[in-house]
Amino acid sequence: MSYSRKCINIVNEEFEAKRLKNESQRQARLNEAYSALPELEKIDKELSKTGVNAMACAMGGKEGLSERLNALKERNLELQRARAELLLSTGYAEDYTDLKYDCPICQDYGAYNGKMCSCYKTRIIEEQFKQSGISSLVKTQSFETFSVDLYENCEEMKELYNYAVNYVKNFDKIKENVLLVGGTGLGKTHISTAIAKALIESGHNVVFECAQNVFFDFESDRFLDRFGGEEPVSTKYLDCDLLIIDDLGAENISAFSVSCLYNIINTRLNKNLPIIASTNFSSKELRQKYHDRITSRLFGEFNIKMFQGKDIRQVKKTK
Description:
Elements: H1 5-36, H2 38-47, H3 50-59, H4 65-89, E1 111-112, E2 115-116, H5 118-132, H6 154-169, H7 171-174, E3 178-182, H8 188-201, E4 206-210, H9 211-221, H10 235-239, E5 242-246, H11 255-271, E6 275-279, H12 283-289, H13 292-301, E7 303-307, H14 312-318
Parallel strand pairs: 3-6, 3-7, 4-5, 5-6
Antiparallel strand pairs: 1-2
Helix pairs in contact: 1-2, 1-5, 2-4, 3-4, 5-8, 6-8
């Protein structure tokens, strides 16, 4: 599992908070029951000595040990029956003072029998969606909701769709950089979101952001207090398993943004960490916007995938 450290820390803190909350609520119920039923507290005190009494039985020697332990067991069962009857006879549920868990399987620890519990996995995926930047997009954009039949060039779109599906399947082996090129409304963002969703669900740390916001984060980090211990926001763009940059070329291009883009591409290429970038601009337009050292990498190190046809949003309106 390679979800972001921030994501894991957030979810771990949530689970710890749940355990503390449930223990606090249990203690409040116990205090209430003890106040109303003093006999209940006496029973619990005796039950709490079971371990000590068992140790005393063992220290008494082997002779008669089995009988002593059986007597202790019978006494323990008797106390439990008396406890349950006392609660029920006074209108309380039998399990009223028990510790209640949000997840009874892992008891809110997030793991069961050495494996990640489904409740923890669900929550960490939700948080990773949020941290990745696609939490709202995944509701409508996935492989399941992508329809190639809506496109006039459906065979070409089927090839792009299959490429994206295989990209996810082979992600850990190939780690390919991809540049999605084409006009607006042709499915570039939908395909990118579908890839991000599938990889996050399989345990990868994916960051999805529009180009403008990426460079805004780098700009903000320039004024970060380096002595405050706060991690730069832009770190996630350099370290995540997959970085998806949407609308490349639509940002306010400056010497600083160009420098940041070069740093992102160069750093991730050196780390063998892939990038998927989408753009509405042609290769000629991109060459006009960026230095050769950037475009040479975009067109030399990235697999170019062309999206052509009519704006699918307009097509949907006519159907």
